[in-house]
Amino acid sequence: MTKEDLLTSILQILQGLEYTSGIFFFTLILSLPLGLAVARGKMSKNKIVSAIFGVYISILRGTPLMLQLLIVYYGPYYLFGISTGGIKIGPFNFRFIAAIIGFTLNYAAYFAEIFRGGIQSMPKGQYEAAQVLGFSKSQTYFKIILPQVIKRVLPSVGNEVITLVKDTSLAQVLSVSEMFFMASSLASKQVSIVPFLVVGVFYYFMNAVIALLMSKIENSMAYYS
Amino acid sequence: MNNTDNILIMENIHKSFGDLEVLKGIDLTVKRGEVVAVIGPSGGGKSTLLRCATTLENIDSGKIVIAGDTLCDMQGGKIKYATKDQLRHIRSRFGLVFQNFNLFPHFSVRRNITESLIHVLGKSKDEADQICDDLLAKMDIKDKADSYPCNLSGGQQQRVSIARALAADPDIIFFDEPTSALDPELTKGVLEVIKSIAAEHMTMVIVTHEMMFARDVADRIVFMDGGVIVEEGPAFELVSNPKQQRTKEFLAGY
């Protein structure tokens, strides 16, 4: 191994950072609200609606994320004959879009179960107090329930967020040039383990920052119990 | 508004949970300024009656009128409840104090009291703050406005929840065993506060196990058991000279 190899590794993998963080942020921004919606669907009083969301969660949590990514990417063509090669949204090609869709659907299922646990752990008295004070259903939800649920689910959400950083590496199966994809191809080109070590350090530091942020957010909500 | 001399009218209230009939035709009328204590053994239906009066449970049949507004009535043999807008109005006419306070833990004491004033009743923040400060002074917890419920004692929390129930200037306040979650020392302070509100002629219905308190503060006591009102009468008389055998047995335990 030479110093140049190390430097090339770092620079090349840094190029992949853009895609990695792209997948990460888009997935987070989309899957959190979707997860909340899925949680509400699962908790629906309508048994059919609840069952549909139950099946959704069950399938998305019960099959490999890698498989889901492949199905989102290849499904449109093999199942419906839709050619996806030309699809582009802004600078993003279909590989990237498919990755975002796959990740979002999958993470929404996990977040949904976390939110459901949080919402169902809320004491009935909170709803009752809000009701007799005249708050509407949506006021009760957004002012009283949701802020408390967020505090309750924060540690579990933090876990998922950290997992997501590492899971972005699965996008390599769609040949998205994220960090892991870059590292793999470099490793075979250089016949060296260095790119893998470098990429490991990158993931670790991203997660160290996230863990720090999560504990900051948790502390900012520690003023009540 | 009509018939506002009777703040609460409950007529022939029936309520079942599954096969279990909890209220078997209750009639209860409370006049303006009257303090009524509801006593009786656990499972006798007192709390359910209160929950029905405060819209937390829907009754199966009967009629409820609060401050002149009909909450529910029979129509063609079926119970019919007020519309959403009417319900919103009716809920602003009464206050409810819970056994376990049910304060909002993520709100300061001030916000617990002012939030509904501002966002339900449309009062200005200044007006709501003024109401809050006045009530906290009355509850003797003036310096706690910026505290969070978790930093207050049980007695202080219950005072905040009483202030919250009083904030909208309701026509009637319901208390659901307001001191059952408190130790005897804290109980005393909360009962004093309730007494002081009674002295201002607030109409109140109090479900309680504090027999001496009921005797001292209430004008009238209602003894409930087995889903019916077994006996009711002037507070002192009912406690010192109960007529029904069941009432005698119950009071003998105190």
Plain-language structure description:
- The complex is a heterodimer of chains A (225) and B (254).
- Chain A has 225 residues and is mainly α.
- Chain A has a single domain (3-220), classed as MetI-like (MetI-like fold, Orthogonal Bundle), CATH 1.10.3720.
- Chain A has 8 helices and 2 strands.
- In chain A, strands 1-2 form a two-stranded antiparallel sheet.
- In chain A, β1 and β2 form a beta hairpin.
- In chain A, α1 packs antiparallel against α2 and α4 (94-120) packs across α6.
- The longest helix of chain A has 40 residues, at 3-42.
- Chain A is globular and about 70 Å long.
- Chain A starts with a helix and ends in a 5-residue tail after the last helix.
- The mean pLDDT of chain A is 93.
- By secondary structure, chain B is α/β, with parallel strands linked by helices.
- Chain B folds into 2 domains: 1-93 and 172-254, P-loop containing nucleotide triphosphate hydrolases (Rossmann fold); 101-169, no CATH class.
- Chain B has helices at 46-53, 84-91, 109-119, 125-138, 154-166, 184-199, 211-217, 235-240, 245-252; strands at 6-17, 20-31, 35-39, 61-66, 69-75, 78-81, 94-97, 172-176, 203-207, 220-225, 228-234.
- In chain B, strands 7-8-9-3-10-11 form a 6-stranded mixed sheet, sandwiched between helices.
- In chain B, α3 crosses α4 (125-138), α3 runs parallel beside α5 (154-166) and α5 (154-166) runs parallel beside α6 (184-199).
- Chain B starts with 5 loop residues before the first strand and ends with a helix.
- Chains A and B meet through α5 and α6 of A and β7 and α3 of B.
- Following the backbone from N to C, one meets helices and strands of chain B in this order, namely EEEHEEEHEHHHEHEHEEHH
Largest chain interface and its two residue counts? A-B, 21 and 26 residues
What strand order characterises the main sheet of chain B?
Answer: 7-8-9-3-10-11
Please give the order of strands in the largest beta sheet of chain A.
1-2
Quaternary structure state of the chains depicted: heterodimer
CATH class placement of the largest domain in chain B:
Alpha Beta
| CATH architecture assignment of chain A | Orthogonal Bundle
The CATH superfamily of chain A bears the name: MetI-like
